[in-house]
Design a protein that fits this description.
The chain has 17 helices and 13 strands. By secondary structure, it is of the alpha/beta class. It folds into 3 domains: 47 residues, Transferase, Pyrimidine Nucleoside Phosphorylase, Chain A, domain 3 (Up-down Bundle); 252 residues, 3-Layer(aba) Sandwich (Pyrimidine Nucleoside Phosphorylase, Chain A, domain 2); 90 residues, Aldehyde Oxidoreductase, domain 3 (Alpha-Beta Complex). Bound molecules: uracil. The site of uracil has 7 residues, from helix 9.
Amino acid sequence: MRMYDIIEKKRNGYPLSEEEIRFFIQGYTDGTIPDYQASALCMAIYFRGMDDKEISILTDAMAHSGDTVDLSRFGNLSADKHSTGGVGDKTSLIVIPVVASLGAKLAKMSGRGLGHTGGTVDKLESIPGYETAMDGDTFMRQVEEVGLAIVGQSGNLTPADKKLYALRDVTATVDSIPLITSSIMSKKLAAGAHNIVLDVKVGSGAFMKTPQQARELAVKMVTIGKLCGRNMAAVLSNMDVPLGTHIGNALEVKEALGVLRGEIHNDLREVCEVLASNLIAMVLDIPLEDAEVRVKEAIDSGAAYQKMREWIEAQGGDVRYIDDPSLFPNSKICYQVLSPRDGYIEAMDAEAIGLASVMLGAGRERKEDPIDYAAGIVLCKKVGDYVRGGERLCLFYTDRENAPDSAEKKYLSALTFGDEKPLEKPLIYEVIH
Ligand code: URA
């Protein structure tokens, strides 16, 4: 078999066979197929697409290009959640203890933040003592005993995706539905869970800017996950506005704790309830309406909060910070951003707000940058709110003396003001099963 013929076949619009797809993934992973041929094939796929059979074979081949996690000991109880990434997106910190408190088993590997979006591992590391690296046996024992564990990515999971994603990033082939689907779903398949809920974000702070694009991706990921034998649901949720009010690592942990203690009833709680209900409905094989009731009870009874506490303690975290979030260190500077005018906030560019939080030290511009766990933004006004000139829009927390000026410019450039109350956009566009 020759890579040249595979590229030519796809360039001419024909579906690739299973043998051809597996030949490509194996050869690219082991280095016998060079970058220039792999990038030519990615570009041919970008223009010609792939049918569902091709995508499911590609996904499976990538999932098996390295190690895989075996969760078969948990039967149908194994569960996972994935978000396509957003600003202020701390849903994992809430959804995972909620579903674990209802009997699901979650052995989760999460990423770090880069650019305008944060990562769950960084958020958890803001809790003193929390250990994000664990050996495989300890990880599995914790999942068995506590119901959940969240660690950083380690080992040799989906090496084909690591190489291909880096290549796509520099060859203008990231935004291809077959390639995104196989990239995300191969990682989920390799991570082993039987039930998967996807949070596909839509809007200015998301990878997918319109509901149509997000829907196309979500339908494809659900289809491919099911073809590969998993139970799937995808929630299309709004990311035109940051989720909740807190952006930044320790700040997001504090907000998540507020939701789990039943103190906060906002858009964040609503999205978490939808994600958790859809996931637990699959895990326990119960109607969605029953799952919704159980999820609310798990939060309102304190069971989910107790599960969070148990989990953090099992993973070495200092639970005094969970019991009393005021113990988290404060930034040296707390800076108020004031409204330049009267009016309604018509729109917020969530990506620009995420970038303002990075300027304050809450995120990374480059992979090796350090993070200031206390830094970030607390929003006081969101889309649809009326503000008076001079009224507080948000609070910045930082140790960087010169950062508030430039971050304030960025933040204000992200807001659009108007004289009319804007039409409300849905928080959840659709759930796809
Ligand atoms: N996220 C991924 O993991 N892969 C993609 O291709 C795009 C977003």
